[in-house]
Amino acid sequence: MLLRNSLWHLSGVAIPALVALATVPVLISGLGLEGFGIITLITSVVGYFGILDFNLSAGTLKYLAQYHAQKDKQRFAETFWFGALFYGLIGSIGALLLSLIAVPVLTHYFTISSSLVDETLWTLKIAALGFALSQWQNYLVSVPQALQRYDKSAQGEAVFGVLVNVVSAYVALSGGGISGVMAARVFISALNILWLTWLLKQLQVIVRPVWPRRDIRILLTHFSAYAYLSRLASMLHQHADKLIIGSLAGPIALSLYAVPNQLASRILGLTYRLGSVVYPRVSALSATANNELLRQLYLDATRWITYLNFAVLGVIALVGEEFLRRWVGTEFVAEGYPILLLVTFALLLDSLTQIPSLINDGLGHPKITGRFALARGLIGVPMVYVGTLYAGIKGAALAHLLASALMAAIFLVYVHGRTIPISLRETLKSGWIPSLSWGLSALLLSLPMRWIVPNGVSGLLLHVSWTLAMLSLIGFIFLSREDERQILLSAVRRLIPRTS
């Protein structure tokens, strides 16, 4: 079931991510470099208003999964409605504050061409409505995931994820401008909420509204208070660099930074989705105290997610220069490829903390993850500011890498053997070392293709195909256990049509 949920969860974001990457050149063509930079800037400003989100979704996801496993319908209903009321309130407050505060902030601290100022302000007002809707949308999509119905949540995410990117690109090419693109995204978000409401009714989740008792409110807020630190740090990590670059270097420099950053982040997001299904599973296991199953789950997830992250980011490093040239143009290669390499290695280091963080939270220790994540943000933001001030966008990317290396190392040493009941030595031996060594072997076998294949799209596709084939073959032969190979072979056989 865990493998099936992982694949469903991946599918929900894989297709939209690929479509999003494909539409970036279209958006740049329709909006221009400055327009694309302004959209990125507004997204970052709106993202910072997520500070209002107490991250109650982390608590509701954990306890919805737990109460569902225990068949406690009353507590399940109270947990659901507490989250629904909370995110309705947060969305309304955030939309109001965005309308009142974000406009003077944007016009005061960022340099925008006079011809785009009025449209930028109008776009911000549209984005404020989008913030309110996104709070509901993000909460509702987590509910079927708590039930481990990733098939249902993934179907909606795939359809609406593709739709928002395609429609945005169409509006940009049609001359709708940045305000038209933002309005299209908000409209599709509203449609997604309607579909999610229908889905939850089909799953019999939405029942008669009930007011949560005091113990439920305390339990959820206590858990989420520490998880909130992780969310706060995530916002610092995701948006601070863009706001700093937009302020110090302007929208055009921000576009040159954001495009390679988006490429690496979106692709890594695919493997993150595979690992994130561990969280509700661990939450359910914590109710039964099955330590041996938890240990095996942790080591298996670490081994495979580390290998996949290293493989994906290794492919980006090998073919990223040619891909940027063919994807968005030669003007992005000189500035963009060094950014891509630095961001890639920073994300790889960050990815080593993914499974430990999920296990840590699932076992009920979000304060540890939250404190380290917040420290990562508080250390990283000043470093990015200094890096940008003295070395531009390359300095910002290098600062990210250094902050990731420092905080990942400290976090991993601290949690193993403490909140995570597995030693760091065992994790190294059974998880990271096999994954990284076999992944590096596959990439080294693929490296000569960089000079063998011809330039152009055909050579790029051949290089990527060869690298993926090497990674798949080595992973199947040397990294997987016998039982895992049998499961994979069985899945492949089911995909092959039978002949009479």
Describe it for me?
This protein is mostly helical and 500 residues long. It has two domains: 1-212, no CATH class; 227-500, no CATH class. The chain is 86% helix and 0% strand. It has 17 helices and no strands. It has helices at residues 2-48, 56-69, 73-109, 114-146, 150-173, 177-202, 214-248, 251-276, 278-286, 291-327, 333-351, 354-362, 366-415, 424-446, 449-452, 457-479, 482-495. Helix 4 (114-146) runs parallel beside helix 6, helix 8 (251-276) packs parallel to helix 11 (333-351) and helix 10 packs antiparallel against helix 16. The radius of gyration is 23 Å and the shape is globular.
Beginning-to-end CA distance, first to last residue: 30 Å
Q: In which range does the helix fraction lie?
A: over 70%
What oligomeric state is this?
single chain
The total strand number stands at: 0
Overall shape: globular
Structural class: mainly alpha
Q: Helix segment count? A: 17
* Mean pLDDT across residues: 81
Specify the biggest β-sheet: none
* Uncertain stretches of 5 or more adjacent residues: none
How many discrete domains? Answer: 2
Whole-angstrom Rg: 23 Å
Q: How large a portion of the residues is in β-strands, by DSSP E?
A: under 5%
Order of helices and strands: HHHHHHHHHHHHHHHHH
SSE layout and pairing:
Layout: H1 2-48, H2 56-69, H3 73-109, H4 114-146, H5 150-173, H6 177-202, H7 214-248, H8 251-276, H9 278-286, H10 291-327, H11 333-351, H12 354-362, H13 366-415, H14 424-446, H15 449-452, H16 457-479, H17 482-495
Helix pairs in contact: 1-4, 1-5, 1-7, 1-8, 2-3, 2-4, 2-7, 2-9, 3-4, 3-7, 4-5, 4-6, 5-6, 7-8, 7-13, 8-10, 8-11, 9-10, 9-12, 10-11, 10-14, 10-16, 11-13, 12-13, 14-16
